[in-house]
Design a protein that fits this description.
about 500 residues; two-stranded antiparallel sheet; two-stranded antiparallel ribbon; 21 helices; about 5% strand; globular
């Protein structure tokens, strides 16, 4: 358990609670602007004095705060969020350190080049967008890619084994925090009266913490975008079966993760889950070469974990104090309907969006249309039809994430992200022959999961997806180790015999 739950974990959890407390305080007291200034200044000072701790704070905020809007204020007609304020502060602090030669990013060891094509594609999207439409619209659509500038301070830190241990604990804290927030929201909405639910719903909506949807029968869908990190943490829990860790606490964590994936009722999660699970199980088999009895035991533990996850969801929703507002049958029916239903408004609208997106791609397949490009389609969403009776709607943020990359940045967009994934996976392959093989396996599976989920819900054009890719950088082996691993990586992909090598994971 020490891999995830030691001193840094508890410090991270307390910091996340403090960030939420600051957000709620600013919301109800009208002091968000002042608090944003304080966070910006604190970020700058911390980045100048202790850059590694400043980057810890960056990941803490990302893992716990879905949209970065715990604090939100209008500054000169422009909305500024907590995430933006922290970004400006950390980059200013690092910039001063760079100018004074306190920090120097390592740009020649190959890690920066992993993101070169993504940066070029984003720059192309900004340039074409600004040349063809309102720059403010362009910025609002593409500003998430500015998150990639964090690569410079990340490359300015010498990441040690202790740093990587701390980062894993911060990820664990984010996963637990997202789960706790999700379960708390579920409990409130299934147990309390409208007079309380209304202000809670407004708070969650305004701070963009969660989407709470009444799916009927007193059942609520609770979707928190940072549940993505709870799911990613699940790959670490599963990969730990490679080690001699005790099964009991792994089963407990696994049950929590299963419950969150079910609570999110996100089909996109389930789409990403399939290739990631197949990949991880295949690699576990290749690594452990289990006998039938061991494989049967693994399946048994997996079934127990899934059953406990469903039970945990029911315990929270049906806890008898105060009296719950739904029956167990209603909850089970909602889970079943969400899994099997193929004709609801959301799915119908997504399919109706697909053809207009493809037509838009074909209009400019090479260089794209730039950020801020809208696609017009007809939707069956009753909320939109209440505004537009014929269902005609235009939007810049779309499902079918890989096609959106193509629309905004041309063919370079999706190819750049595929190249980045290839380079990251190739380098993380070095863990395969160390005692920390489970770490590399989990990190790679996280890439597969996000890239799979991005098919239907855009995550790679959001700080959540971009932030996870940046989170991988401190775990990358040095350039010499990466080159040595490249041939082995390719041989394993094509199924050739695994050579007998040993590659250290330390940078």
């Amino acid at each position: 358990m020490s891999q995830f739950f030691s001193r840094t974990f508890w410090f991270a959890l307390l910091t996340m609670a403090a960030l939420y407390g600051i957000g709620v305080f600013g919301y109800y007291t009208g002091t968000s602007t002042v608090l944003l200034a304080v966070i910006m200044l604190a970020g700058a000072i911390l980045a100048f004095k202790k850059l590694d701790l400043a980057l810890y704070l960056v990941f803490l905020e990302l893992f716990s705060n879905p949209h970065g809007a715990l604090l939100l204020a209008d500054v000169g007609g422009f909305p500024v969020s907590m995430r933006m304020a922290l970004f400006v502060g950390v980059m200013v602090g690092w910039g001063i350190g760079w100018i004074t030669k306190r920090y120097q990013p390592s740009l020649k060891d190959g890690r920066a080049q992993i993101f070169l094509f993504v940066a070029l594609a984003a720059a192309l999207g900004f340039i074409i967008g600004v040349l063809t439409r309102d720059p403010i619209v362009v910025f609002k659509d593409g500003n998430a890619y500015l998150y990639l500038f964090y690569l410079l301070p990340i490359l300015s830190v010498t990441w040690t084994h202790k740093h990587r241990h701390d980062l894993l604990q911060i990820l664990a804290a984010g996963a637990i925090w997202a789960a706790a927030v999700s379960f708390t929201i579920l409990y409130i909405f299934t147990h309390f009266w409208v007079a309380l639910l209304t202000p809670v719903y407004v708070l969650l909506r305004d701070l963009r913490i969660a989407e709470v949807t009444d799916v009927g029968g007193g059942v609520y869908r609770v979707f928190v975008q940072s549940q993505m990190f709870t799911a990613i943490f699940g790959w670490f829990v599963l990969a730990l079966t490679l080690t001699k860790e005790k099964k009991r606490w792994l089963v407990g964590l696994g049950a929590m993760i299963v419950a969150i994936v079910l609570l999110a009722l996100s089909r996109s999660f389930w789409v990403g889950l399939m290739p990631a699970l197949v990949f991880l199980l295949f690699m576990l088999y290749r690594t452990a070469k289990p006998k039938f009895s061991l494989a049967a035991r693994f399946v048994g533990w997996s079934v127990v974990t899934a059953a406990l996850g469903v039970a945990l969801l029911f315990v929270v929703a049906l806890f008898p104090i105060p009296d719950p507002s739904l029956a167990g049958g209603s909850l089970m029916d909602s889970l079943k309907d969400r899994t099997t239903e193929t004709g609801d408004a959301g799915i119908s609208s997504s399919w109706k969006l697909l053809t207009p997106m493809l037509n838009t791609i074909f209009e400019s397949p090479l260089v794209g249309h730039g950020f801020g490009k809208e696609v017009t389609f007809q939707t069956d969403d009753p909320r939109i039809r209440a505004i537009s009776p014929d269902g005609t709607w235009s939007k810049t943020s779309m499902e079918w994430g890989w096609f959106e990359l193509w629309i905004k940045m041309g063919i370079l967009g999706p190819l750049a992200f595929l190249y980045a994934a290839y380079e990251l996976i190739k380098r993380l392959w070095a863990y395969r022959w160390t005692e920390q093989a489970w770490i590399g396996l989990a990190l790679v599976t996280g890439i597969v999961f996000i890239y799979g989920t991005h098919f239907f819900s855009p995550y790679l054009n959001h700080p959540i997806g971009l932030g996870y890719l940046l989170f991988l950088v401190p775990f990358l082996p040095n350039k010499k180790q990466a080159v040595s691993t490249s041939a082995v990586f390719i041989e394993e992909l094509v199924g050739n015999k695994q050579p007998s090598v040993a590659i250290a994971s330390e940078s």
